[in-house]
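re: that chain from earlier
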Amino acid sequence: MISKDYKQNKNQVLELYEEYLKACADADKKVNDSIREQAEKIKNEIFNLMILGEAKSGKSTFINAYLGKEVVPMDVRQCTSAIIKIRKGNKFELIAKTAAGGKTTVTGYDKIRNFLKNHAAISDKYRNIPITTINNELLIKNKGKKISKHSLDNFLNEEAKDNIFNMNIDEYNRLIKSYISENEKNWGKIIIEIEITYQLPDEMQGITIIDSPGVGAGGNVGRIAEEYIKNANAIIFVKSLNGQALESSSFMNFLRNNCTNREKKSLFLVLTGKSNLQGSEFVSLKEQAIEMYKNDITPEKTIFVDSKMQLFLNKCRELGTEENIDEFFDTLDEAGDDFAPASKCWLKSKGDIARFNEKMEELSNFSSVQGALEKFARVANYLQLIEFLDNLENEYKRYKGIYSDALKVAKENINDPVALEDRIKAKKKEISEVYTKITQGINEIYKKYTDNINGEGVVMDEAEKKQAEYEEKLENFRNLPESKITDVTFSSMKKMTFDAIDDTKDFRREMADRVIEECNQRLIQYTNDPSQIPVEAYNPNFTESDFDAIDAAAEDETSGYNKVKSGLTFKKVECVPYHHLKEHVKLVANSIYDRLSEEIIPKMTGNVVNYVTKCTETYRTKLTEHKQELEEEYQKLLEDKENNNKLRETIENMERKLIVVKVGASKVNELKGELKNYVGE
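^ sequence. v structure.
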């Protein structure tokens, strides 16, 4: 399970947020809406852990070992094309959704196991053919319509690569046709998603395990699984060390041809079954695996475990006493179900449960999975916490800037109402002048980025550079000799296009960050006189929730990206036989080029301009709010200028607020320093 460290740190961050809320209430200040939204997002966040693997790779065993409970019945063969989602709930319940939109609810272990056996599992007859692909690419897509001979022939030609059990090709194709014939009219009953809730430990709160159907030899996972992979915080690819070649075409093809750059960052390879290997044999295989995959996945994210060993450890922990564990192993031995590495470990421990636990944990090595997820997959969550604390600290700094300057003015002129009024008028004029200057500055910066005719047109220039990079990659594909072209070539071209789409989203945020940074630099220039109100009092505070709102406002401009995925380019890749491969590559490359130049890049440019526009509008809005807050503090002093007692009371109140702000900022800064250790900053 995910380390408790993150949950504890998250709770500490939320405690500091509650202190911020209290400080705002005491000071009669409005809570920053975007900070409130960001806090809610942190409270309610879901960590999606996607589990992938080849057929018979031991995914179910790994999942149950990871969860600490047999949530996925292991005597049930792989579900067809169904995604299985597992999360913490109040009872053991299954909800199955079908391709036609139907829904079935089942409760209780036995009923759930029987339902999976009878309605979702692959029958022995069809276990060696690519059921997931058949369901997704033919049956569900055609919705009961007759599949043409041309489409079927193309499909059989393509799916020959997924004959991973090396069946006679005629028998392989016969089984595919037989399965299609049996299920063509019942496409609507195909189960596409199963959600299971279980009474899991508290540390699993907010975590969803997503079990996908087996990955094909070509690395394909099916369209339904692709959508889940995009939103996964971490992806674990499970591969057995026993009875399978270490070199896995399905893993490598998934990694290199179907896994986008964004998804690679969250990918882990878990090799299970280590306890069945002798010491030197395991060491040799481990070195081999690390060397084999090192160019694609770091050694720290290649993890060797034993799921079965962890399952036995979980069971023994439930049994608790030495007598119960002894009885358990004796029963297994009598039934011929003994697992030698675990029973041997128990015998060697001589009834010492603590020693047994320690040795079993060492052999299962599941703590490495937890540690790797905490170190790599949780980085984004920790960065979110740090960014949230940054925003809290900025709010405290802003109020410190407001109170400290107003307090100084009040203290220096407490006995001279006329001088106090003059100073306040001068401060209000200063506020107005800074606001006017920065507003003009924002307009100049906006023009620099967006105006390609009268300004520098930074957005357009950068977009053209990106397009040139994509075109160079396409030219490399066009220049491939026919002998080097395979079906993987087309997967790589598809992946390149999706990476380009992901890049456009990063580019949008990069431009926005640059614009905001330039606006902040201008603001610093206008407030660099020590006698003036400090820049922190004005500074607009951009949170992740602000960017979410800006993104929503720019949504219309991004709608066209989805069309790339369902467009004719990739339908041609999937459907056209590769008789003239070089010409076919050119056809696809030209089609991608057209989409880049006519759709992706223009939409990206328009969207970035729109995004920058929304950012500058938000900057002005926040700046205006902060200007008004500053003016209100000075106005309070102005109203009290003739009443010396009231003015002293206001000063004391402001001093108290300033202490609260300083203490709050100090606590936030201290925790932020601790959290940075988790992300190597």
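Residues 434-642 form one domain.
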